[in-house]
Amino acid sequence: MYKLWATIIKDLQILTRDKVGLIFMFAMPIILAIVITATQNSTFELVNKNKVPLLLCNKDNGDAGKQLVIAIEKVGLFTVKKVTGEQTEKQLSDRMHEKDALVAIIIPQNFSSVLNAKAKATATKALNNFGLQQDSVEISEDSLQPISLLFHPVLQQTFRQSIQGALRSALQMVQSKLILKSIYFSLNEEALPDSLENEIIDNQVAINEISISRDGSNTLPNATQHNIPAWTIFAMFFVVISLGSSVVREKLNGSFVRIKTLPTNYLIALLSKQITYLLVTLLQAAIIFAIGIWLFPSLGLPRLNLPDDLPGLFIVSFMCGWCAVSFAICVGVFAQTQEQANGIGAVSIVLLSAIGGLLVPSFAMPESFQHIIKLSPLHWCLQAYYGLFLERGALRDVLLNILPLFGITIFMQLIALYGLKNKNLI
Amino acid sequence: MNDAAVSVQNLGFKYPGQSAPSINNLNLDVAEGERFGLFGPNGAGKTTLMNCMTGLLNYQQGSIKLFGNEVKKNRKKINKFFGFVPQDFSFYQELSPIENLAFFGAWSGMNNQEIKNKSAEILEILGLTDVCNKQVQKFSGGMKRRVNLAIGVIHSPRILFLDEPTVGVDVHTRQAIISYLKDVNKKGTTLIYTSHQLSEAEELCDRIALMDGGKIIVHGSLNQLLSDHREAGLEGLFIHLTGTMYRDA
Questions:
Q1: Which residue, among A392, A399, A253, A239, has the nearest Cα to A330 in the 3D structure?
Q2: Which residue in B has a C-alpha nearest to residue A426's C-alpha?
Q3: Residues A195 and A223 in one domain
Q4: Among the listed ranges A206-215, A382-391, A401-410, B127-136, which one has the minimum average pLDDT value?
Q5: Do B91 and A263 touch (CB under 8 A)?
Q6: Which of A202, A225, A256 is at the close of a domain?
Q7: 3-state SS class at A152
Q8: Does residue A332 lie in a domain region?
Q9: I need a labelling partner for A186 at 20 to 30 A (CA). Which of A98, A204, A221, A231 fits?
Q10: Do A261 and B84 touch (CB under 8 A)?
């Protein structure tokens, strides 16, 4: 027991003097967690609180054009800057390049007249179907010029799709209004009263956003709840830089030669490294969680809400840490040089993070990747954490994620032992 | 002289992938309490022989016994009673001498109090007390050699294997190391020693062996060897027996 204790002390002494390793293990993941959460939170706020600057050029003089402008303003997604109808597409593009706006909409000249004609044609068809004979209205299919939507290239596809959806919704509202007015006029030979128009249009079914959770709290998850678990796992697995190098350094620097001539098994050294670095991973988790709870609110970011099952959180963190340490030892055993350990370690963690859904949500990955995802230990770590942090579950709810993680950990331990035996190191 | 501390019989060792053996049918006995020196040109097989005797290399032929225990079969047992000072610095550069001694002492089977007492004594003798809490990586080559030696003797081994312990050190450090090794030997530790410094044979060794091509060419006391080959000094004897060709080409 004293040998193990002395080895743990030795490992802690070496660890605390490895400044670069400490930066990789503690500073970098903390900075990443803050930066990524802040960025994602800003995107969230950009869509939900801040508005996208939009140039609106209405070349149409009719009512439909005006109503579309009002509908776009009502969407709530944009800060509308109206420009005169004389502005050309080129002029609008130039203003967008000067970052005057990220989006521009051009309503074509004959928008109202053609949209009215289309609405009348649709109303006539509908009334004819009801058995009320009406004079048919003929309109050419290509008479309605499209609305032009100009995007600044910095806008990502998902964001462009949101804007297109909002615009379609506004356009749909204007079209529906015109069709309704036309039908009303045909039936009653008088204009649709404003009160009825507003009542019909505004009486939309509300959408109630509910996040499903195991504890029934239905709290909406935020960028912090998503990012803190992910970057905690990333930090844990980044011990490969320090631990992998430590194993390689021990093999190369000659101390290993002496260790092999002493009456103690090298497995004691491996056990010590596992205990030491497991403590490091738990400390990493505690620090990152503490930052999420106490520092994030003062930075204007959402506060981290810990799961109710704290013992469960400890066990999940322990399993994630143990898996990370086993992976690092594996890399250290098979790497020939420190450069190899650092390179292979860093690249493999980024790859496993990407595969495991830390960088891109796993549900968004192609079908062919869905089986590969399960090979990444980071995937199981993330699922277990999400089960606690996002679904507000308890340990029993994430056992199916812990078991594969345990299996991968044991597998890596066996691989490391095989490597040591094969290299005549134990 | 007492019973054999080391007994090597018909030893053969070949590195994987090499056609010729590095050690070929080698026989050697070192008595307990003896100061025995292994000398020879580069590539003669001195370090390989030492690595076989300490169990770092698995020999394919013959037998090596330390106090009657076959090295191959009793690795754990023999590891308890020998110390090893490799040619390379074999310690943790990030740690201080006292921290290195604490770790290697524990791995040698000593308890905390034994380690503290012995560390203080060794560091004092080797002149490292003032720097015992500084990281070894900031030390000079000579100081590192002394740390390397201190770790090898922390557990008071019955046999001490030393692979070129004075390489690259100044005359003061060399004298300090030689003097300390004589003291260690007086307390009963058998010394088995390799070096390129032929003068150390005269200063330290009771008996020497000259190796070349994986074999022991001659062995005996220095005076006896000089007399047998009618040479005035060890350097002349060395050239006479091994020739003048480069051996590390």
A1: A239
A2: B56
A3: no
A4: A206-215
A5: no
A6: A202
A7: coil
A8: yes
A9: A204
A10: yes
- Enumerate the residues of chain A whose CB falls inside 8 A of the CB of residue B99: 10, 13
- Domains in chain B (CATH in brackets) are 4-242 (3.40.50.300)
Q: What is the DSSP letter of A336?
A: S
The pLDDT tens digits for A118-144 are: 888 888 887 777 776 666 556 555 566
**Cβ pair B91:A264 closer than 8 A:** no
**Is A212 part of a structural domain of the chain?**
no
pLDDT at A214: 65
pLDDT band at residue A286 under the 50/70/90 scheme? very high
Give how many domains chain A has, as a whole number. 2
Q: What's the rounded Cα separation, in Å, for the pair A328 and A289?
A: 23
Q: By 3-state DSSP, what share of chain B in percent is helix, strand and coil, each rounded to 5?
A: 40, 25, 35
Q: How confident is the model at residue A398 (pLDDT cuts 50, 70, 90)?
A: confident
Tell me how many residue pairs between chain A and chain B have CB atoms under 8 A apart: 79
Nearest chain B Cα to A249, which residue?
A: B92
A393 lies in the same domain as A260: yes
The one-letter amino acid code at A357 reads G
Residues A196 and A333 reside in one and the same domain: no
Contacts of A426 (CB under 8 A, 6+ apart): A265, A266, A267, A417, A420
Q: Kindly state whether residues A223 and A362 are assigned to the same domain.
A: yes
Q: Where are the alpha helices (DSSP H) in chain B?
A: 46-53, 75-81, 97-107, 112-125, 141-153, 171-186, 198-204, 222-229, 234-242
DSSP calls for B112-149: HHHHHHHHHHHHHHTT-GGGTTS-GGGS-HHHHHHHHH
* Reported ipTM: 0.85
Residue with tokens 């004092």: B124
Domain residue limits at A20: 2-43+217-422
How far is the CA of A273 from the CAs of A12, A379, A409, A417, in angstroms?
9, 24, 15, 14
Q: Are A38 and A101 in the same domain?
A: no
Shortest CA distance from B78: residue in chain A: A263
Interface test with B, best of A1, A13, A255 (most B CBs within 10 A): A255
Is residue A333 predicted with pLDDT exceeding 50? yes
- Closest approach of chain B CAs to the CA of A410, in angstroms? 27
pLDDT bucket at A338, cuts 50 / 70 / 90: confident
- Does pTM surpass 0.80? no
Compute the average pLDDT of residues A363-384. Answer: 82
Angstrom distance (rounded) from CA A213 to CA A393: 7
Cα-flanking dihedrals φ and ψ of residue B9, to 5°? Answer: -125, 125
A202, A226, A254 — which closes off a domain? A202
